[in-house]
Amino acid sequence: AVAPDLAGRHVVISAGGTREPLDPVRYLGNRSSGKQGYALARTAVARGARVTLVEANTGLPDPAGADVLHAGTALQLREAVLKAAADADVVVMAAAVADFRPAAYASGKIKKKDGQEPAPVALVRNPDILAEVAGERARPGQIVVGFAAETDDVLANGREKLRRKGCDLLVVNEVGERKTFGSEENEAVVLAADGAETAVPYGPKEALADTVWDLVAARFGQIA
Ligand code: C5P
């Protein structure tokens, strides 16, 4: 049995990847499977938390014991996360949120026309949900956790991102061949705002999830 060290805590987790529609049949998307977010949800339930999982386009079955909300786009995910965060003790942004969305949505399918070059797709910025949640802190002592997939200068970029977003913990993944996207395994370093670094060796996504909860529970211990 697992120690119920998250009992009485409400944790909000986002998982999956947003899809930003161009027209009724097309979207800009990403390769996030949602598996890391679901592992976070399952392990949080096991440790006694009340879990709200905000899922985007994962197609995964709802984890037992969690309240699951569904979002398609970044704007929908933002709305669901901000609402749930209002009474959350912890918010973990594991979802891959599109940084940009098409500036315009065509209500009919965009058609190719003979002899014409395709029109360029104009993009606009999506709001940064993690930075918003971390900046507002709906509750005193609320713990905010982000994820970052980096291809180079992983730790330096991670440190800079942690500071810029204002979160307490940032899980930094090096994106590579068999790692992270769609895989059952992950390898990461968890950076903390106080400077601590916790390396998590290549292994099941549950192991990384449990390390995140260990670090969160330790922070509750300091506050309480
Ligand atoms: O800036 P970058 O996309 O690398 O940051 C990744 C982290 O920020 C993830 O935790 C992701 O969920 C979050 N994010 C967000 N809103 C965005 C973009 C990213 O909350 N628009």
Rounded to the nearest angstrom, the distance between the terminal CA atoms is 24 Å
Q: What is the helical fraction, as a range of percent?
A: 25-40%
The helix tally amounts to 5
Order of helices and strands: EEEHEEHEEEHEHEEEH
| Poorly predicted segments | none
Read across the widest sheet, the strand sequence of neighbours is 5-4-1-6-9-10-11-12
What percent strand?
A: 25-35%
Main beta sheet: strand number and arrangement?
8 strands, mixed
Supply Rg: 18 Å
Kindly report the average pLDDT value.
94
Bound molecules: cytidine-5'-monophosphate
Return the structural class. Answer: alpha/beta
The number of strands is: 12
Overall geometry comes to globular
Structure explained in plain terms:
The protein has 224 residues and is of the alpha/beta class. Helix content is 28%, strand content 30%. The protein contains 5 helices and 12 strands. The strands form 3 sheets. Strands 5-4-1-6-9-10-11-12 form an 8-stranded mixed beta sheet, with helices on both faces. Strands 2-3 form a two-stranded antiparallel sheet. The chain has a two-stranded antiparallel ribbon with strand order 7-8. A hairpin with a 4-residue loop joins strand 11 and strand 12 (197-204). Helix 1 (35-46) packs across helix 5. The structure holds cytidine-5'-monophosphate. Cytidine-5'-monophosphate binds at residues 74, 93, 95, 97, 99, 126, 128-130, 146-148. The site of cytidine-5'-monophosphate has 12 residues, from helix 3 and strand 9.
